[in-house]
Amino acid sequence: MDTNEYHHSRLYTFSEEADKTMSSKKTLTINGNQFEFETGETILDVCRNNSIDVPTLCHLKGATPTGACRVCVVEVEKARSLMTACSTPAAPEMVVQTESPTVITARKEIIQLLLSSGNHNCAVRGSDNRDWTDFQLNVRADDNSEELCPVWGDCRLQDLAYRYQVNGQGFDATETRYPMETVNPFIVRDFSRCILCGRCVQACNEVQVNKAIDFGYRGAAAKIIAAGDKPLKDSECVFCGECVQACPVGALVEKDARYQVRPWETKKVRTTCGYCGVGCQLYLHVKDNKVVRVTGVEDTPPNYGSLCVKGRFAFNFISSKERLTTPLIRKEGELQEATWDEALDLVAGRFKEIRDTSGPNSMGVLTSARITNEENYIAHKFTRAVLKTNNIDHCARL
Ligand code: SF4
Ligand code: SF4
Ligand code: SF4
Ligand code: FES
Predict the structure, then answer these.
(1) Nearest CA residue ID for atom 3, ligand 2
(2) Pick from 39, 198, 322, 333: CA 20 to 30 A from residue 208's CA?
């Protein structure tokens, strides 16, 4: 029986036991303590519900578990091999160890393997015996940059490498097969850092349901592909950036933010997206008083981390030098700068003139879902109380 078959048979046995005790309270033991659980919860769910930290890489909340990376392996009593916590259902009487010596040895090996495949030139990869100058020259050749990996300091794999004190040594380094894809307007795809965890595929297919990317090729040639292996810009991709937010390493990075966002140099400011009335919650990553990146706030309604292309990528206008900073009034055919008082007096005067000469019902106001509820409320008050007409409508009804 191969390992997968064994896992499936074990899963089946545990599920059967779970079904038999549907009506009674179900408990299992993790690291010597008993915990209750609901049918359908995985070992990882029970751990997370009870603040037991089990590291994950491929697991994406809300998506089907794939068990691809095996970083979350745990020891389950009576099971003949380690089980992946993210895809193994919890079962009554299960006895689980999440950080036993066997588990730690297995996790170290998995992390080492991931670090040795591809270009993981962060500090953990640089700690080998190679000459430092050669190492830096390699970094420049691989990344066309003076700096180490663009997500240095914000990478789950790097975090795990530090946590388990391993680097990529011990396994033959595998070379990168595919060049970096830089032609897209918002996203750089660096295949040399892809660990094939599949989170981006799940984020695109299961969370956003855009179905723009999938696994392609086999074995050592495996790659995440779009539209039969074309650049994202020539595929179904709508550049929502969900895959970028899901990528645990530096394989998918926002083009403009590459090398701009080191966690210790940026401040995260939580705010509400101003593009429409949905009210997505987002973080502005601010460096030197300039927004350099936007990410969705996870675990929070209404968007639970997801954003659209505008919310995530269209923020350069904030510091654009072309922004209007003062009202403009057309005088003798030319737009000329004016004060706010001048502009508001002009508009108010014209409204009054039209109302007095042609009557209030000669005017109407159209509002938009792209403004906030409060702004729509003000528009309705202004129309009825100031213009004295009920001619107000909203684009959502058109
Ligand atoms: S992707 Fe992560 S592990 Fe790889 S080089 Fe970058 S920081 Fe290091
Ligand atoms: S940007 Fe959005 S649509 Fe494009 S591949 Fe990523 S998740 Fe899919
Ligand atoms: S691009 Fe990122 S999220 Fe997608 S498979 Fe590679 S490492 Fe995982
Ligand atoms: S997180 Fe469980 S297998 Fe990857």
Answers:
(1) 237
(2) 39
